[in-house]
Amino acid sequence: MKAIKITDGIYWIGVNISSNDLFEGIWPIPKGVSINAYLIKGEKTAIIDLVRDWASASTYLLEELKSIGVSPKNIDYIILNHLEPDHTGDLRAFHELCKNAQIITSKKGVPLVKSFYGFEENVKGVGTGDSLDLGAGKGLKFFDIPNVHWPETMATYEESTQTLFPCDAFGSFGALNGFLFDDEISEEDHRSYERESLRYYANIVGPFSNFVLKAINALGSLAIKIIAPSHGLVWRANPGRIVERYKNYATYMNDFAEPKITVIWGSMYGNTEVMLRSVLQGIASEGVLTEVFRVPHDHISYVLASVWESAGLVFGMPTYEYKMYPPMRDALGQMVLKKARHKKVFRFGSFGWSGGAQKEFDAMSEKMQWDMIEPLEFQGAPTEKDLEEGFARGAALAREVKKIPQKSTEFVNTN
Ligand code: FEO
Asked: 168 alpha carbon to ligand 1 midpoint, in Å?
């Protein structure tokens, strides 16, 4: 593997992971993920973020350094924007090769360097307002961007090339299959890549959306030519595109998202599914973009991505043991944790013998600032009248969702 030159004196030394492992032990990555690390050469040499030893990543990083004639022992600074082990897991082994390198991280990162890796000496905490001169015209500035994605996160900015290294911010799932820059892929690939950005955002960053907006604001005064995040594409042709994308994603937590409906359903014996068909027909009669997921069959990672982007949600599930159908409780619990707020919502289902699902649903979603359409429950199988009502309420929800203005120019209604 060879390092890739990003701009004058700056190189990508990351790795593309193809693995059946789950990211964070939770999220599937069928299209892989990149762990981006960078090297900056002035008179002094700095490395920005590392990798974890995952799918031979550490070996690739060393090969990439070798490809540009850099020996680890000549590295002066290891800059850790964020201590999560996907970017630092290799720190102990790598530091063995450059024992004199100073570790630089945010002030909140310093104790984490000790607790994760045992380093206390030659570790420096920096923050907004601090800088580091590497010589030969290369100078770094540091900016605290807390909670994007954990409290200690910072961004590093190289002044001469106007390159921003924001770590998880502006990142994405999806390995970089032979390309690295935003101008190396087609518009069609950008659309597919945007789906993986959305999923990454909804799975990893979503609940911290207000911090994302603060970070964008804090970095807003910088002249930025290149955004080099720690996951996904390096943006050199149009860095504003990923900033705008993230701004829209963050806004979805605080306002109705896009005019789209995500339908999540689960059924034990098919009675809820019969109603589902009528509700879907009602929505379709109004021409609103719809994505349908069945729980527990579909992975919550994809459900969350669709939910995040949608102004409308439909939940179809029966009562089970006086409560919600358990896989739906799990899915709803994830939506609550990820703060998928401000939705127009319709819930339906068979109440079986006793009912109880609606009560639990209301309690769990109480703080989500969801506008509820009157729920529809029926005993056993739905009657013709129930099905007509399901059609009508699906259409009513769709009419509400149609009123929501589209926010992102990248949102595509394929209906
Ligand atoms: Fe990519 Fe929060 O680590």
From this structure: 5
Q: Which residue puts its alpha carbon closest to atom 3 of ligand 1?
A: 84
Ligand 1 atom 1: the closest Cα is on which residue? 168
Q: Is the C-beta atom of 230 inside 6 A of ligand 1? A: yes
Q: Which residues contact 341 (CB under 8 A, 6 or more apart)?
A: 253, 254, 368, 369, 370
Distance 205 CA to ligand 1 centre (A): 9
Walking along the chain (415 residues) 10 residues at a time, the average pLDDT comes out as 96 94 96 97 98 92 97 97 97 96 98 97 97 98 96 98 98 96 96 96 97 96 97 98 97 98 96 96 98 98 98 97 97 98 97 92 96 96 97 98 95 74
Domain 4-251 classification at class level: alpha beta
Please check whether residue 194 is in contact with residue 245, taking contact to mean a CB–CB distance below 8 angstroms: yes
Ligand 1 center from residue 259 Cα (angstroms): 30
Residues in CB range of 404: below 8 A, 6 or more apart = 256, 257, 258, 259, 311, 344
Ligand 1 site, residue 149, Cβ cutoff 6 A = yes
Asked whether the beta carbons of 52 and 85 are under 8 A apart, the reply is yes
Q: Which helix or strand (DSSP H or E) is residue 154 part of?
A: strand 154-158
Give the three-class secondary structure for 79.
Answer: strand
Provide the token pair at 104. Answer: 């630089």
Name the one residue in this structure whose structure tokens are 């540091």.
142
Whole-structure pTM value: 0.96
The verdict on domain 258-402 having CATH code 3.90.79.10 is no
Joined tokens for residue 246? 């993230």
Closest C-alpha to 313, from 290, 329, 330, 333:
290
Provide the β-strand partners of residue 226. 163
Beta bridge partners of 34: 16
**For the chain, domain boundaries:** 4-251, 258-402
Question: Is the CB–ligand 1 distance for residue 87 below 6 Å?
Answer: yes
Query: Residue 31 C-alpha to ligand 1 middle, in angstroms?
Result: 17
Cis peptide before 85 (omega within 30 of 0): no
What is the dihedral angle through the alpha carbons of 345, 350, 353, 354, rounded to the nearest 10 degrees?
10
